[in-house]
Amino acid sequence: MKKKSIIVSSFLTLAAFGAMAQATAPAAAPEPTPSPFSANLNLTTKYKFRGQDQGNTNFFSPAIQGGFDWTQNGFYLGNWDSNIGFTNAGIEMDFYGGYKGEIAKDFGYDVGILQYYYPQKNKVVDFNVTELYGALSWQWLTVKYSHTVSKDYFGIGQAQEIAGSTPRPSGRNTGYLEAAANFPIDKWTINTHVGYTHYASALRNATVDDGEGGITSVGVPNFYDYKLGVTYDLGSGFSAAGAIVGASKKSFYGDINKTRAIFTLSKTM
């Protein structure tokens, strides 16, 4: 009887351990650490920068665009490229780095440096530009200011010098102020943007002396640009967008500032 009692007791103990094992949930597997790298690719019917055409002035001048980003603990580095139409190299390469943080809940900031680089051969005008920027954001609203620290602003001063303006006008201290609001509505996002380009005084006031006492202005006027559009989330990192984009002072700058309808298909990875 004693032996039987020991066997029964052993079965009861094993059953108790089995019940405990079933009642205790297995430890959750740790979530994989997100990659600090991301990439993006765009196909667009027209590339406009600050409201101005970067290809030709046709309604349809498609561009392939894309880039890579690394982000870690608020710091980031990235590169973004696009085909363009105003240099012999036909490409724009942007390199940037900075830091993003949060001031309070829903209030963020972003500071950094951006280099616009155009790998031209036998260039007459050097379009390269370096800017410092700072931005403040609240939920769907962002205000950003970019300040030129390079000697020239997209070669405008050099072009004025070629036209006869001496000494060469400096583009340093040209500024760009912009505000963007992107309202999410389910899978849709309403995109709005307005910006203002304020040229350095030397670029605005550049003149050419004809040698006979006459002075001709070759300065460039400040202007604003605008965008109104929508973006639809197609899922799996794909999105489709349509927008109306343009800029003021078309009487001076011509068709590059003309308002255009632009359609874009994007993929984030």
Q: What is the oligomer described by this structure?
A: single chain
Order of SSEs, N→C? HEEEEEEEEEHEEHEEEEHE
Task: State the distance separating the first and last CA atoms.
Answer: 71 Å
DSSP, total strands: 16
Question: How many helical elements?
Answer: 4
Please tell me the CATH architecture by its name: Beta Barrel
Note poorly predicted spans: 1-23
In short:
By secondary structure, this protein is mostly beta strands. It has helices at residues 2-23, 156-163, 201-204, 250-253; strands at residues 37-44, 48-49, 52-53, 63-72, 75-83, 91-104, 107-117, 129-138, 141-148, 175-185, 188-198, 207-209, 215-217, 223-235, 238-247, 260-268. The longest helix is centred in the N-terminal third of the chain and has 22 residues, at 2-23.
Tell me about this structure:
By secondary structure, the chain is mainly beta. The chain has one domain: Beta Barrel (Porin). The chain contains four helices and 16 strands. A twelve-stranded antiparallel barrel has the order 1-4-5-6-7-8-9-10-11-14-15-16. Strands 2-3 form a two-stranded antiparallel sheet. β5 and β6 form a beta hairpin. The chain is globular, with a radius of gyration of 29 Å. The N terminus is likely disordered.
